[in-house]
Amino acid sequence: MTIIAPSILSADFAKLGEDVREAERCGADWIHIDIMDGQFVPNLTFGPPVVGAIRSYTSLPFDVHLMVNTPERLFEDLKKAGADRITVHAEACLHLHRTIHAIRELGLKAGVALNPHTPLSVLDHILEDIDLALIMTVNPGFGGQSFIPAMLPKIRDLRGRLDAKGLHGVHIEVDGGINGETAALVAQAGANALVAGNYIYGNNDRASAISTLKNSAKA
């Protein structure tokens, strides 16, 4: 089953809790939370207090994507705020193996994100240690960007590597430019968790948008 994770980066910040609740009501599986520090990426978004503030609005897992430098400084606070999984960028971690295990030691699921230019070889020695690999299909930092088709072979390659190792429980998540058309492409390439912001929150019928993504991924 394909997991749909609406990104609240595209939600209405003035009624964030309500938009999170509506996403669950409309059929979402996870809530994707992009935390940016204005340094690793130019944009500045949420922090642990916002995660904690919206936790009571849904029972869905919080899929927290850290686009920050020194991400480990936020782990404890994010756990207290209600995060279920934390994904860090390989490019932001000096000691990636240590960082992943710091997440897992808190009882949380751990993921690694790769920017479009970052090779899969970065994951060669930690695939057995992660719960999720996030392939960025846009350059990180802003919502509403166009999907980069050159990432499809990267997704297929990652699926092949996971299957070869028997790591069928590791999610392949994609983030960036996901819509009804690109959802089918990334699912065919091997992704099973799709992050969508504008496509869901920019749609007047969000339930229909989520349903379209799930049906497209099955095609």
From TrEMBL:
Annotated InterPro entries: Aldolase_TIM (IPR013785), Ribul_P_3_epim (IPR026019), Ribul_P_3_epim-like (IPR000056), RibuloseP-bd_barrel (IPR011060)
EC number, as in UniProt: 5.1.3.1
A Pfam family the protein falls into: Ribul_P_3_epim
Cofactor: binding comment: Binds 1 divalent metal cation per subunit.
Binding site for a divalent metal cation: H32, D34, H65, D175
Involved pathway(s): Carbohydrate degradation
Gene Ontology BP terms: pentose catabolic process; pentose-phosphate shunt
Function: Catalyzes the reversible epimerization of D-ribulose 5-phosphate to D-xylulose 5-phosphate.
Protein name, UniProt field: Ribulose-phosphate 3-epimerase
Species the sequence originates in: Cohnella thailandensis
